[in-house]
Design a protein that fits this description.
This protein is an alpha/beta fold and 463 residues long. The chain has three domains: 3-51, no CATH class; 54-270 and 450-462, 3-Layer(aba) Sandwich (Rossmann fold), CATH 3.40.50; 273-444, 3-Layer(aba) Sandwich (Rossmann fold). It contains 19 helices and 14 strands. It has helices spanning 3-19, 43-53, 83-89, 107-122, 141-155, 157-167, 170-191, 204-211, 247-255, 272-279, 284-290, 311-320, 336-345, 359-365, 375-383, 399-407, 417-428, 432-444, 450-462, and strands at residues 63-64, 75-78, 95-100, 127-132, 198-201, 220-223, 241-244, 263-265, 299-303, 327-331, 350-353, 368-371, 388-390, 411-413. α4 (107-122) crosses α19, α5 (141-155) crosses α6 (157-167) and α11 (284-290) crosses α14.
Length: 463
Amino acid sequence: MQADDRERFHGRLSFFTLGATPWSRFGHHAVNFKRAPAGREPAAKLRRARDASRWGRARGTGLQTNSHPGRDPNLRSRHHPAWCARMRLGVSAPKRLLFLFSDTGAGHRAAAEAVAEALHRRYPNQFVVDCYDPMADQRVIAGRLTALYGPITRRAPFLWATAYHATNLKPTVRLFQHAVGRGLRRKLRGALEPRPALVASFHPLLNHVAVDVMPYGVPRITVITDWVDFHEAWTDLKADCIICPSEAAYDLCRRRGVPAERLVKAGLPIHPRFQDAIRGFTDKRSMRLRLRLRPHAPTVLLAGGGDGTEPLRKYAAALARSPLDIQVLAVCGRNQALAEGIRQDNHSGVRVFGFVDNMPELLLAADLLVTRAGPGMIAEGLACGCPLLLTGNLPGQEAGNVKEVLRRDLGQYVPRPADLLEAVTGWFARTESERIADGERARAAADPGAAFQIADVLARMAA
């Protein structure tokens, strides 16, 4: 080929690759790559630029839903304000981290969001975190099973116990993962583009599925969100690192064959806003005044979790019958029917809340926390110095939480409303020094900075 022919050929190629796909379409997300000579634009750079254009508009530091237009709307991205500026200036972009979770209970999402916020605070502009729920799509088998989780655990916990124990073996774990994993693998392949620097799983069903589609060389982390006892699916022997929330969880992983060098103990992650509230906390009286509560009344917080649980109404009624002048804070979460039912009961001294964003302040204002034995609420209550009154537990992963609370003298088990009333009356009858000691013991058992410890581990693994 002659020199002039080569020039015309390269000119046509340049028009085809750049003219048909103008750089202006990338808008404010355009990447200022070093351009190759005319007509020799590397295809890999074009692909990277195209991928960069898919990111949604930066909106501060919040999680958003349209991070990849045309892709799964359940993929949420944490974009930093400097993202666009860094891209325009040609500065190396923040590393992308992919967090996998599912809304089977609120704990998995809450843990993922807590670590994402900790990463943003400790490593500003260094990471972009995508929090992705591949099981939100009920067109896949796993999504349909996830939709049944809430109704089954609330109305037929014995069915959950049967399913939990039947699948809590290595052979059945892999068989179950294979059965439900086909649709998930397809969705995960889409979430892995553009290639992340690290993938962290906050849900047991996603650990083994992710390994089948992971790109070579991408570190894979498992963050266990159950406190002391957990399903066999959490124990992923192929994970590069498993982060354990307690000494008991660490020991269980070791018994299941995970090498010690792949295990890290870091506590249960709770949102950094708990640390913010704890640092600014002075005393319960001041916090109650701030929340427009009675400053000197004995205060009990009833927490039903993000979705609220129906037994909360019975416990509120029991506390309203107490001979003590108790101030009850009933947090019903998203369960509007439950909140309305408690309001209609019109109990004296019971304040009803729906879904709240000031749970740290409410816990700091309370003397006692009444809740189910979910690991997230236990971690938040202990961090705020609240002794625990556990009303029940989900068969399987939460049964060990009750035993751990009792073993460490962090609270009591009160499965019936009458047991709760007796425990509350007896606790407030104790001396003030004994009650203060209970609160200090609860606070000492907590690790409110666990999210930052996990963020440090992920930052090192993604380096």
